[in-house]
Automatic annotation (TrEMBL):
Keywords from the UniProt entry: Signal
Protein name: Lipoprotein
Phylogenetic placement of the source organism: Bacteria, Pseudomonadati, Pseudomonadota, Gammaproteobacteria, Pseudomonadales
Position of the signal peptide: 1-23
Amino acid sequence: MRKHMLWLALVAMSGCASSPLPQVDPNMAWIDLATPMPGGKLLMAESLDGQKSPDGRFFQVSPGSHELKVRFDFEVFVGGGLGMQGAPQERLCYMLVRYDHFEAGQRYRLEGRNIAFSASARLYNAKREIVAEDRQINCVP
């Protein structure tokens, strides 16, 4: 089942990867998505203010308050023993980040991070200051 979900996600992303990103609208805020730490495989825009995102690679939002929902896929290593590392296991988390002060013409960066079985998200402004963090995380398995 997990392999089928991963396969579908990769097929969906391959369609997005082949199309160019749209022009940045100076009247909107742009949010890039990233997984800077090892183990993070995919961070994808899921929904904006409860509405399905048309493109999983970024968010582009009007000024003001918004709730971003992202999907974060990463690997954790379980098993092993006696210092041996076990086989990787896929983990999928959905995280909500709310920020009340998006500004037109500004770029933001939303990063998904994982430490062991836990996931977190941080939203940075252009000065690399943390302006918001996840407020809800739902993970499977």
